[in-house]
Amino acid sequence: MRFMAMVKGCETNRMPPPELMAAIDRLTEEGAKAGFVMLESGGLFPTAKGGVRVRLANGNVDVIDGPFSEAKEVVGGYAIYEVPTREEAVMWTRRFMDLHRQYWPGWQGETELRQIFGPEDFAEIMGCKGG
């Protein structure tokens, strides 16, 4: 099963502490030994640095340049990983967030975890599964 983890928090211009990044690397190595595969991850620049929203509403497509002052939280990073079960995805995500608590005091946020569907899942998602 593949999942995308989207880390959301208040937008700051501060980089995560190096100790946090080192701890995340150790967690990723530990996970690899246990069947957790990190396929990709990355951090995102603040919305003021090239952030754009392209919105479709009422038949109109609008482009809104960042920063987005009305946003209480923004996605600041992401990871895509493969694990055997949803429960393991939740467990590794909890451990990831616990590292934030330990190594970045005062930081508050959440990680939204979503399963990624592939071509084999498309018919079921579109309601076309069956004979």
From TrEMBL:
SUPFAM superfamilies on file:
Dimeric alpha+beta barrel
Ranges for domain YCII-related: 1-95
Hey, which family's this protein in?
Belongs to the YciI family.
Concerning PANTHER family, the annotation shows:
BLL0086 PROTEIN, BLL7171 PROTEIN-RELATED
Q: What is this protein called?
A: YciI family protein
Taxonomic source organism: Pendulispora rubella
